[in-house]
Design goal:
Length: 355
């Protein structure tokens, strides 16, 4: 039982606490329990009392102290909660508001180039395929006639992922060529596809990014020849660079998945960067007649069917077409850059515009 003076102090304190706002509550805490607070003074006064009296009074003062301190904490919790609720309401995010002051976005130049490629090859009767970014070793290398010991694997160093025991090692695909295999396994010829998509290699500088884009092409039929390959790629390059007389050169090369293989060059002026002018050659894509082993790996008889394939780097031809010097700019998401190099979403790639 508390002494009457203590009972009164408790009642007054509790009433004041109930009515207090945050600032008043802090004042009360200091006034009651602070260094020179009322209850602190009562505790100090115990020191001058007789032991018997001190015991009873001491217990009562402590009871008061605990009751007041509990009341202070409880009130603080209520006030904090109310303040938080108020803040949450005041700071509520309007998710329907535009995230940036921009009133419109643009089509990224990489996406635009893929749309242009789709428009050009679409007009030639190609359909679009895609495949997974995470491939396995067999689709990315072995089935494409690149066995485990082959040096071409080192040239396409990639990111190897941890596989399950007994599973073929998963890799981030180094090129879009594995989609040739996926398509040949699933669909009987004739086949006429392009494959735009993301590719990955362990490379990083002004002209290489660990993630980049390619478009693969594959045509397989009973009577597809090198002449088809040449006609198709010359038409593509002239349409893409909007240059009807663009010089195009086919230069013997090597890829494990084609035989014969050819690098395709276009004429340009190395000094000015002008495409189609001058007397220099610039390598632009890889191509060739599909290797008989690749067809056989997919269960297609190479004595009955043949075809051609090609692979083109999207960043590279986009940089050339638009005079972009550093490939890393594509991925910086700088709004000023995007506004300058981006394309209107309302003006899709159209063949009659020279694309
Ligand atoms: N896959 C090759 C690369 O990434 C590019 C390529 C070359 C693709 C020749 C082809 C081809 O289909 O026939 O370097």
């Amino acid at each position: 039982m508390l002494d009457p003076d203590l009972l009164q102090l408790q009642a007054e304190s509790e009433a004041a606490i109930q009515a207090a706002d945050s600032a008043a509550l802090e004042n009360l805490r200091v006034r009651l329990l602070g260094k020179s607070g009322q209850i602190t003074a009562l505790l100090k006064a115990l020191g001058g009392m007789e032991p018997e009296a001190r015991k009873a009074r001491g217990a009562a003062v402590n009871e008061l102290k605990n009751a007041v301190s509990t009341a202070l904490d409880a009130r603080k919790a209520i006030l904090d909660e109310a303040a938080l609720t108020q803040r949450l309401q005041a700071e509520r995010i309007d998710i329907s508001a535009p995230p940036r002051p921009e009133t419109f976005g643009t089509i990224h130049p990489i996406s635009r180039t893929m749309e242009e490629i789709a428009a050009i090859f679409g007009a030639m009767g190609f359909t679009i395929k895609d495949g997974p970014d995470i491939e396995d070793d067999w689709y990315n290398f072995s089935a494409l006639n690149i066995p485990a010991h082959h040096p071409a694997r080192a040239m396409m160093d990639t990111f190897y992922l941890q596989g399950q025991p007994g599973q073929r090692p998963p890799v981030l695909r180094t090129h879009t060529s594995p989609v040739q295999i996926r398509t040949l396994l699933k669909e009987p010829p004739p086949i006429r596809i392009i494959v735009p998509g993301r590719t990955f290699r362990a490379d990083h500088d002004a002209t290489h990014s660990p993630m980049f884009h390619q478009t693969e092409g594959l045509v397989v039929g009973k009577d597809i020849t090198l002449a088809h390959l040449k006609g198709c790629l010359i038409d593509f390059l002239r349409a893409f660079f909007d240059s009807p007389d663009l010089p195009v050169r086919f230069r013997a090369s090597y890829f494990p998945f084609t035989e014969p293989s050819m690098e395709v060059d276009i004429g340009w002026n190395r000094k000015t960067g002008e495409i189609g002018k001058g007397s220099d050659w610039l390598e632009i894509l890889g191509s060739g007649m599909v290797h008989p082993n690749v067809l056989a790996n997919c269960g297609i008889d190479p004595r009955e069917y043949q075809g051609f394939a090609f692979g083109v780097g999207i960043e590279r031809i986009t940089m050339l077409k638009h005079g972009i010097a550093d490939l890393r700019l594509f991925y910086e998401s700088d709004v000023r850059w995007l506004r300058h190099y981006g394309f209107s979403p309302l003006a899709p790639a159209m063949l009659h515009e020279g694309v």
